[in-house]
Amino acid sequence: MTSCVKYPAALAAIFLWIGFVCAISFMEAWLKFRAPGITLPLGLGIGRLVFNALNKMEWLFLLVIASNLLIAKGLGWNMQNILVAVPFALLAVQTLWLLPVLDARAGLHIQGQEVPASNLHFYNVGMELVKVACLGWAGLLHLKA
């Protein structure tokens, strides 16, 4: 008996997206500051580059998933489309508002300026958790399809 995944491009992009977010947002982001010789400005500079690249990859993954699902299912309010719409909305908020604000704060730190405390990183972590949960659920639905 052979089994065939109905939307292989979407499935691959979903799990790659989860892997990228988990590896970068949940590991690299804080681990780099534990490396010998990494100062706060250096770590923030690395973080700016890495999160900029992650953001571009996330848009690529979303494009692959959305195009695969739209071609296969069209626009509709089914669970798979909703589970992709949530990460899309969060990614849009991160791209248009949160990441530019965090980037600007990092730039001030790098320049040696005093930056007031903020909860913005917690917002980002919360958004990443919701994205991973929705994508994981969508991936499981794809596997069942």
Note the topology.
Elements lengths: L7 H24 L8 H34 L5 H32 L9 H25 L1
Radius of gyration equals 17 Å
Sequence of secondary-structure elements: HHHH
In total, the number of strands is 0
Shape: elongated
Task: Give the low-confidence spans.
Answer: none
Helical amount among residues, as a percent range? over 70%
Q: In the residues, how many domains can be counted? A: 1
Strand composition percent: under 5%
Q: How many DSSP H or I helices?
A: 4
User: How can the largest sheet be summarized?
Assistant: none
Structural class: mainly alpha
Structure, explained:
It contains 4 helices and no strands. 22% of the residues are buried. With 145 residues, the chain is mostly helical. The radius of gyration is 17 Å and the shape is elongated. The protein has one domain. Helix 1 runs antiparallel to helix 4, helix 2 runs antiparallel to helix 3 and helix 3 packs antiparallel against helix 4. The longest helix has 34 residues. Helices cover 79% and strands 0% of the residues. The two termini are 16 Å apart.
Keywords:
single chain; 145 residues; mainly alpha; 4 helices; 79% helix; 0% strand
Concise summary:
With 145 residues, this protein is an all-alpha fold. 79% of the residues lie in helices and 0% in strands. The protein has one domain.
